[in-house]
């Protein structure tokens, strides 16, 4: 890991001046931390505050920025106003990432920053990631891929640097809970966020509430299903209060990217 982190630091140091899209996930945190370490104020770290990021992640991003003294900025816009986004096509992430990179590119042009960085790692290349197309089109650099970091490498490096979110579960945007083809609206996103927040407060780490209009299908780690069943009455009542008529536990358990699997096949 010492050699891996040395190589990553050397790579990012060679960029000289960068802007990073920061979400408080472990991948973008590692890129932001290393960029700040080797480039200082020449690394501009930007959080996009939209309706698809949870309040917890916004708070975590601000906390990390303060703790490590990031050259930090927030931008705010409405993703539901992005053309083709709210209709939720299978390449929804393309439109989301394209909008983000265009906005980062505008800042980069104003600040004379030559490189825009993201937090993609090698494992992302094996999943359905239409956002990667936008990254290629707009010449976004992915230092974790360039330095041959897998997701496990990312977590190990984050732990090596002492980052507090090194073991933070992956947290894709809230829209990923809604099946492709089902329109996305703010009320649905808020309902999902509140439902997942309530279940996490019950002590669960990996939580997804898949949103099928008036049906909520809860995913937790397979080993946690029995514990969730014991408190299901409370969870069902809370989710019904939020507007779900039917609340179910997914017997297969949590699996990241479950809604992408039909597309991959």
Helix proportion range:
40-55%
Number of strands: 7
* Termini gap: 35 Å
Arrangement of strands in the largest sheet: 3-2-1-4
Task: Characterize the main sheet.
Answer: 4 strands, parallel
Mean of pLDDT? 94
State the helix count. 11
Query: Which CATH first-tier class of the largest domain would you pick?
Result: Alpha Beta
Number of domains: 2
- The CATH homologous superfamily of the largest domain is named HUPs
Q: Beta-strand level of the residues, as a percent range?
A: 5-15%
Gyration radius, rounded: 19 Å
One letter per element, helices H and strands E, the order comes to HEHEHEHEHHHHEEHHEH
Q: Segments where pLDDT lies below 50 for 5+ residues?
A: none
CATH architecture assignment of the largest domain: 3-Layer(aba) Sandwich
The dominant shape is globular
Structural class estimated from helices and strands: alpha/beta
Query: Might you state the CATH topology name of the largest domain?
Result: Rossmann fold
SSE inventory with pairings:
Layout: H1 2-13, E1 18-22, H2 26-39, E2 43-49, H3 55-68, E3 71-76, H4 92-111, E4 115-117, H5 131-137, H6 143-146, H7 151-160, H8 186-201, E5 207-212, E6 215-220, H9 225-230, H10 232-242, E7 246-249, H11 261-264
Parallel strand pairs: 1-2, 1-4, 2-3, 6-7
Antiparallel strand pairs: 5-6
For this entry, give a set of tags:
Rossmann fold; Alpha-Beta Plaits; single chain; 45% helix; 3-stranded mixed β-sheet; 4-stranded parallel β-sheet; 2 domains; 265 residues; 7 strands; alpha/beta; globular
């Amino acid at each position: 890991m010492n050699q891996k982190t040395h190589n990553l630091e050397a790579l990012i140091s060679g960029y000289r001046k960068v802007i990073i899209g920061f979400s408080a996930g472990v991948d973008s945190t590692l890129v932001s931390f290393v960029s700040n370490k080797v480039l200082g104020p020449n690394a501009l770290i930007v959080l996009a505050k939209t309706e698809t990021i949870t309040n917890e992640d916004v708070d975590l991003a601000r906390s990390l920025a303060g703790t490590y003294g990031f050259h930090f900025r927030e931008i705010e816009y409405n993703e539901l106003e992005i053309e083709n986004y709210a209709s939720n096509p299978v390449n929804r992430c393309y439109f989301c990432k394209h909008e983000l990179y265009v906005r980062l590119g505008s800042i980069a042009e104003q600040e004379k920053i030559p490189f825009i960085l993201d937090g993609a790692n090698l494992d992302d290349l094996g999943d359905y990631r239409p956002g990667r197309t936008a990254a290629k089109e707009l010449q976004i650099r992915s230092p974790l891929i360039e330095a041959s970091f897998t997701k496990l490498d990312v977590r190990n490096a984050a732990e090596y640097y002492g980052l507090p979110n090194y073991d933070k579960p992956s947290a894709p945007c809230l829209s990923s809970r809604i099946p492709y083809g089902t329109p996305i609206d703010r009320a649905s996103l808020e309902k999902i966020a509140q439902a997942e927040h309530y279940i996490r407060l019950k002590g669960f780490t990996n939580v997804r509430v898949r949103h099928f209009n008036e049906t909520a299908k809860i995913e937790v780690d397979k080993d946690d299903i029995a514990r969730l069943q014991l408190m299901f009455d409370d969870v069902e009542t809370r989710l019904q209060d939020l507007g779900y008529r039917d609340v179910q536990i997914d017997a297969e358990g949590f699996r990241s990217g479950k809604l992408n699997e039909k597309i991959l096949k």
